[in-house]
Amino acid sequence: MKRIMITGACGQIGTELTAKLREIYGQDNVLATDLRRPEEGSRVLEGPFEELDVTDAEKMDRIAEAFKADTIMHMAALLSATAEKNPVFAWNLNMGGLLNALEVARKHNMQFFTPSSIGAFGPNTPKDDTPQTTIQRPTTMYGVNKVSGELLCDYYFHRFGVDTRGVRFPGLISHVKEPGGGTTDYAVEIYFKAVREGKYTSYIDKGTFMDMMFMDDAIDAIIKLMEAPADKLEDRNAFNVTAMSIDPEMVAASIRKEIPDFELDYDVDPVRQAIAESWPNSIDASEAKRQWGFDPKFDLDTMTKEMLSAIREKENK
Ligand code: SER
Predict the structure, then answer these.
(1) Residue 273: Cβ within 10 Å count
(2) In this structure, which residue's CA is closest to atom 2 in ligand 1?
(3) Rounded to whole angstroms, what are the CA distances from 242 to 43, 47, 100, 293?
(4) Most exposed: 69, 91, 261, 275, by fewest CB within 10 Å?
């Protein structure tokens, strides 16, 4: 990776990924793109930026060529809960954008990354210690997009030799840019509400376990996988990665170590609860560890400390 173009650079992952890649590879060697230009003062504007709708294949190609990118990181996507509200739009954006980005990578011989998700699993997938290779019959549009995307990326590798790489992210927890429209978002909101109000009403029920990971570990995983020697990789896409399997009660207990009177109650949203229940409780990340040294640093308590102190600083509390 020397010249990197990112789509969805203003999203939850893209914002931090752009900053980290610029730190490592040089400010001018990382081109951020997103549907809309962010507000002045956004860190994404500290280096090159272009407005790009990922369904515009011609513009994506033109921008990549002009920038002389050797790598494309395709992060633009609609998350699970939003995708359920408008499934046809989700299909067109998630699949259309991915196909366009893969075509750009094929034409210009670029290395390629895009994230899949725990959403690529479904209700008849084994729930605990879910293996990387297993039954995938997701029941959400987002999940259907993610499985199709995994297959498409493998196809571009086998059929055209494009150096595609990808992971299945769990819920990602971060304080720089809040996520939007995901099922795992509660695990971010809970920290913001803990600092702002000392209490949180969860739309995900107690006892509902999902995999999660702190954003710093997610960004490190992307870079590690992209820099891994190709001959070490037996798989290319759809690596399970995770740092913890947690439910709302566990997050609350961890927050109470810092904010003892933190209160948690529930007002369960049936749509997002059903999505959560269709996903695994805990996935097995051993292949990522074995093949390219995936090694997350944050557990629940260290992440909680980091989240609370960063949010307090941001909000002057
Ligand atoms: N965080 C995502 C979501 O909840 C899962 O990939 O939609």
Answers:
(1) 16
(2) 182
(3) 27, 30, 28, 13
(4) 261
**Residue 166 covered by a domain:** yes
Residue 79 near ligand 1, beta carbon < 6 Å: yes
* Structure confidence by residue, pLDDT tens digits, 82-113: 999 999 999 999 999 999 999 999 999 999 99
Give the active site residues: 142
Q: How many domains does the chain have?
A: 2
Distance, CA 181 to ligand 1 centroid (Å)? 8
* Four-residue CA torsion sign, 246, 212, 307, 82: negative
Cα 79 vs. chain centroid, distance in angstroms? 9
- Whether 290 maps to a domain, the answer reads no
Mutate to test the pocket of ligand 1, among 13, 78, 79, 168 (most ligand atoms within 8 A of CB): 79
Q: Which atom of ligand 1 is nearest to the CA of 117?
A: 6
Which CATH number belongs to the domain containing residue 16 in this structure?
Answer: 3.40.50.720
Same domain for 119 and 262, yes or no, is: no
Kindly report, residue by residue over 198-238, the tens digit of the pLDDT. 999 999 999 999 999 999 999 999 999 999 999 999 999 99
The answer to whether residue 22 is domain-embedded is yes
| 42 and 157 together in one domain | yes
Residue 285 belongs to some domain of the structure: no
Domain that holds residue 192: 174-212+244-279+297-315
Among positive and negative, which fits the CA dihedral 233, 284, 175, 177? positive
**Using an 8 Å Cβ cutoff, are 51 and 35 in contact?**
yes
Q: How far is the CA of 145 from the centre of ligand 1 (A)?
A: 12
CA distance to 48, 225, 260, 283, per residue, from 291 (Å): 33, 9, 41, 16
Pocket perturbation via mutation, ligand 1, pick of 174, 183, 189 by most ligand atoms within 8 A of CB: 183
Q: Are 5 and 65 in contact (CB under 8 A)?
A: no
Ligand 1 midpoint to CA 120 (Å): 10
